[in-house]
Amino acid sequence: MLALKTGILAGAALSLVACASITSREEAGAAARASIPETPKAWAAAQQALGDVEVGWIAAFNDPVLTALVKEAQSNNKNLQVAAANVDRSRALARQAGAALKPNLGLNVGASESGALDPGGSRSQLSAGLQLNWELDVWGRIRSGQQAASASAEAAQADYLFSQYSLAAGVARTYFLAIEAGLQEGVARRTVEAIGETARIVNVQYENGLASSQDRALTKSDLATAKDTLTATAGAKRDAIRGLEILLGRYPGAELEVRDGLPIAPPAPPAGVPSDILERRPDLIAAERNVAAAFNSLDSAKAAKLPSISLTSNIGGASGSLSNLLDPTNIAWTVAGNLVAPLFDGGARDAQVQVSNAEQKQAVAAYGQAALDAFGDVESNLDQGLVLDQRKTSLTEAASEANEAYRVARLRYDEGETDLIDVLSIQQRVFAAESNLVSVERQRLEQRVNLNLALGGSWE
């Protein structure tokens, strides 16, 4: 009779499962997208390339050294290893949460001795049995918790993927920065050599009464300033190389060799349409999965306020001797059903619902902000690409004209038609133009990297 009643209880409980409130993936996604403004059909930045976002953007720089460094970083970077371990942890938590949906079977083995104080009156008893416990997930509390954990694991996986993308971008940016620092060091070294030669000539002229003490002091001051710039640029190069070595998982000894010149900036990648990045950027996918986890956590917290139903079954035997332990006459079984309804918990369950509700709002808002930031990243980098292309044209012309002006000024100075201070001023313009041109070339490369990362393009 008890078994029949328990079966009826279980059947009735299982029939209520369909009534459980569990947020679907589509519902969570719709709630997340409702937090962002309507996206346009095209990017606002002018002259953006059309077409699907490309993958393998590292190869577009056509630099085997860069490709090798990125692969090394993907294997050895410590922060990436932390992210990978977090994925493993999240997956294990999801499996742990799902385990509660299945029956729990345990083995009980025991021994006892009872009787009078007289040793001859004691009696030994051996027991062994199997115990089955199963909570029927009537209201979806366990399934909601399991889905929340699964969504969190998917978010961790997406975060790990974006960490890989970000690491590739970080290696590329730092690599280009180290190369630029080396080029700037070269400009500073040429500046020191040129001013040093000018200072030598002026000193000879001063000793022969052909140059003033002012000219001599000016050249010495400019030479000291140029040496200071050389020292600073050499230090900046070492710092950039150390940063790159840390990304690679190496000891930061500033011993890594980089190439002598910047690679040619590849064409701007196709940008697709704004709505595409919602499905492509791993960090946005992670944010959407966090929304789903928050919704399911709220479902689980609400279901925890409802009664829980569980089934318990035991089968086992007891005997004074091990040989008779499994004798059918010594084996007994029980089946029981339990319903536990929360009556008073000091408001703990209500508070958990409030916490989960607040976390849901946080997750939705965080997704909306992440999406806006992503749109801003793309728009800014598309616009920056146009700006940097125009700057390169202007700075190339500025460097060419400054060199021509310096050539003419040196001829006029040699003929006694202009002052040394004018020559030195034009010379500083030459080196400044060269330095600015190197800087903008590096910025153009960095813009290509940042745009690919903003679009969610894979580095592989």
List the topology elements.
Layout: H1 2-15, H2 25-33, H3 64-76, H4 78-99, E1 104-114, E2 123-136, H5 141-207, H6 213-247, H7 276-280, H8 282-303, E3 308-319, E4 331-340, H9 348-414, H10 420-455
Antiparallel strand pairs: 1-2, 2-3, 3-4
Structure, explained:
The protein is of the alpha+beta class and 460 residues long. The chain has one domain: Up-down Bundle (Outer membrane efflux proteins (OEP)). Helices cover 63% and strands 10% of the residues. It has helices spanning 2-15, 25-33, 64-76, 78-99, 141-207, 213-247, 276-280, 282-303, 348-414, 420-455, and strands spanning 104-114, 123-136, 308-319, 331-340. A 4-stranded antiparallel sheet has the order 1-2-3-4, covered by helices on one side. Helix 2 packs across helix 8, helix 5 (141-207) runs antiparallel to helix 6 (213-247) and helix 8 runs antiparallel to helix 9. The longest helix is centred in the middle third of the chain and has 67 residues, at 141-207. It is elongated. Residues 1-6 and 12-19 have low confidence and may be disordered.
